Amino acid sequence: MPSIFHKPSARHASASDDDMPYSPVERQDMTFDDENKPLSGGYNGSSSTDRGHMEGGMGTHELYALNRSLRRNNLLLKVLVGLVAVLLVIRMFFDGRGVYKEWKGEKGKPKTPVPEIGFRRTMFEKNEIYSSRPTPETDKAWDDLLPPGRGFVFVSDWKKYDLPAGEETPWGTIYSVAVFHQMHCLGQLRRFTWLFLDSIVKNDTEVQESVRHMFTKLDHADHLHHCFDYLRQTIQCGGDMSLEWPRTEADGRRFAVDGWGIPHQCRNWDAIMEYMDKNHFNNSMVAEIAPLVGSSG
């Protein structure tokens, strides 16, 4: 990032005092002897015109008094500017602390009914049931990632927490737990990826027409666009900084990183599911992770 400070030019950096214009307010490098040097006609450097001007205008004492007054005023001005600068720095310091407090919250983390979920070391390993094409078996594996209630929980006393109102149901107020919203979005991307592939590879006109209907007549397109951005922010929020190394190929080379066999610090999934089991919304009519019927939201 370029510096915000202006670097003096060579001319300014090397200019001598003789190059600088003199002003009784700006210049402070005169010696005591210079200050008290007589300004009368006895000064050898003054011309007769200068002497005549002084005699016809201000006298020596008046000029001397004006010079001293200007110097005192200049000094006072510098002191005042310095004091104002110090006060501004102090104000900025305390304002900055106030902003930090406001951002962090006066009482630390926002109040939430969700308990603190700990971390545990988890190894990422390949599991083809989640990467294979849709079948009753693979679909069930994906559906089972959602707890009962499809990721919604009851919060009966939500006004006690830093929460806006949730969704009102005949059985109570419910909220979505983010991790299961994220799973749902990933499930939608998976379902439509395979639909698109099958409609193209198999040239299945029936599937193509079904996809066209969902994306032109229903809101599945908007839903997918939402999921891309939502998952992007989810990944940035998690900010997993685990270091990954390349796998070893059959010929011994190591150049491709697939992420398998890498340890990560992950939220304890068992503790998450335990909380969901105790608080889940128990009147959901849909159990699929990525339903194609009804509302696609």
UniProtKB/TrEMBL annotation:
Family: Belongs to the ustYa family.
Keyword Oxidoreductase assigned: yes
GO biological process, one term: mycotoxin biosynthetic process
Biased composition (Basic and acidic residues): 26-37
Transmembrane segments: 75-94
Pathway where it operates: Mycotoxin biosynthesis
Name the record gives this protein: Tat pathway signal sequence
GO molecular-function terms, A-Z: oxidoreductase activity
Organism: Trichodelitschia bisporula
Region (Disordered) residue spans: 1-55
Keyword Ion transport: no
Domain of life: Eukaryota
Keywords: Membrane, Oxidoreductase, Transmembrane, Transmembrane helix
